[in-house]
Amino acid sequence: MKIHIGSNIRRLRGEKGATQEQLAEAMNVTCAAVSKWERGETLPDITLLQPLAYYFGVTLDELMGYDRERVRAQIDEALDECQRQYLTGTPAGVEAAREIITNAYREYPGDYRVMSRYMWFVAGDMADNDPEILLKHKDEFLSICEKILDGSSDDRIRLGAWNMRAKILHAEGKTDEALEIYKSKFADWYQTKGQKSEQLFAKNTDEYYHWVRLNMYELFWFAADKLGRAVYFDKGLTSGEKAEKALLYGKILTEAYQKTGDDAFLIIAHGFLGRMENDLCCRGGADGDVARVMEKNLQTLEILSENAWENSVMKEAVFAKNSFWAGAEDDPAGHLAASRRAAKDGRKAELLKCPEYLRVIEKYAPNNRG
Predict the structure, then answer these.
(1) How high is the pLDDT of residue 67?
(2) Whole-angstrom Cα distance, residue 339 to residue 359?
(3) Does residue 250 carry a pLDDT above 80?
(4) Contact indicator for 95, 84 with CB cutoff of 8 Å
(5) CA 331, CA 339: separation in Å to the nearest integer?
(6) Residues 6 or more apart from 101 whose CB is under 8 A from it?
(7) Residue 338: CB partners within 8 Å, gap ≥ 6?
(8) pTM, whole model, 2 decimals?
(9) Phi/psi zone of residue 28: left (φ > 0), alpha (ψ -120 to 50 degrees), beta?
(10) Helix, strand, or coil (residue 195)
(11) Cα 137 vs. chain centroid, distance in angstroms?
């Protein structure tokens, strides 16, 4: 960030109604020195910063042209745009996100959010990290972790730093030490914020029932993702068999919903099918299999979103906490289909050449819905 102290001195002197000669006399410097400050040719000696701030009746931050709120807004904007580009999933979007976070890291090197986001972006996110990349950037990452742990009070960012330390230890072959970090620094399932929020209320209250349902829905959503991974990474199944299993599980779960009316089965179905669709798409599944799983996923999502209007707890658990659904509350299935149709490159763009895949998208895309 550029230092604007020269222009600030000129502005503050004008507001005070002081001449360059009066300021020079007050600071015990020459008038020429003040003139050079204001033209940006030189900077005041560091020992004069506090006297200058006192003379003008401003803080050091104001004297230096540092607007905390403005800078924070700029950082927020950069982080939001980085996330938006990254979530496109396209090579162009990922590269744009990389450029944004790298520039932010250079411009705002003291911001812990930027440090953390930059570190994890270079590392390749929090899963499937390449040990060679971790070891290549080991010194840089550990330096960032040390700064975060020494200065940040944000628990999420601090845990991210411990996570990176563990990943580097694992990359070095020190897996036992890495697991010890997780054991000592991270909460188990029973110490989560959801569990503790639930336990805040007496069991016979409406508040307790609200939190029990919210936690149940969130855990089902989380478990559905794990179920999808367990199926997809089963080495005993072919890609086609994984797709068939996804469709079978989806059928069983939606039938369970139809028999019981319990939205929990829809949450599991959508979370599971979404994970399977993503892995089949990104990891080499056949075009037709991706299309069929996507269609079942969109079908489930459509019912789920309709029910969310009457089940506010489910809506909070599934939709409200996911930025992808912002502005899409009326038609999440259409929003998802439209995002697939908008793909410009990568596998999702290639899939648009598949008639079956395109048929499913056009079926659910907003301009084709009644």
Answers:
(1) 64
(2) 15
(3) yes
(4) no
(5) 12
(6) 78, 79, 82, 114, 117, 118, 121
(7) 365, 366
(8) 0.70
(9) left
(10) helix
(11) 22
Residue written as tokens 């001195």?
9
Q: How far is CA 208 from the centre of its chain?
A: 30
**The one-letter amino acid at 265:** F
- Which ranges constitute the DSSP H helices of 17-90? 20-27, 31-39, 49-56, 60-63, 68-87
Can you read off the two tokens belonging to residue 222? Answer: 């989380």
C-alpha 279/C-alpha 245 separation (Å) is 13
**Domain residue spans of the chain:** 5-63, 109-186, 194-368
Residue 366 burial (CB count, 10 A): 14
pLDDT tens, residue by residue, 77-114: 999 999 888 877 778 888 999 999 999 999 888 889 99
* Close Cβ partners of 287 (under 8 Å, ≥ 6 residues apart): 351, 354, 356, 357
* Among 318, 222, 320, 234, residue whose Cα is nearest residue 272: 222
In 3D, which of 110, 108, 121, 53 has the Cα closest to residue 82? 121
pLDDT in tens, 6-16: 888 998 888 88
When mean pLDDT is compared across 154-168, 285-299, 335-349, the lowest value belongs to 335-349
Options 3.30.365.10, 2.115.10.20, 1.10.260.40, 1.20.1740.10; CATH of 5-63: 1.10.260.40
Rounded to 10°, the helix 175-185/155-171 angle is: 160
Cα distance between the two ends of the chain: 51
Residue burial 80-99, b: 16+ Cβ < 10 Å; e: rest: eebeebbebbbeebbebbbe
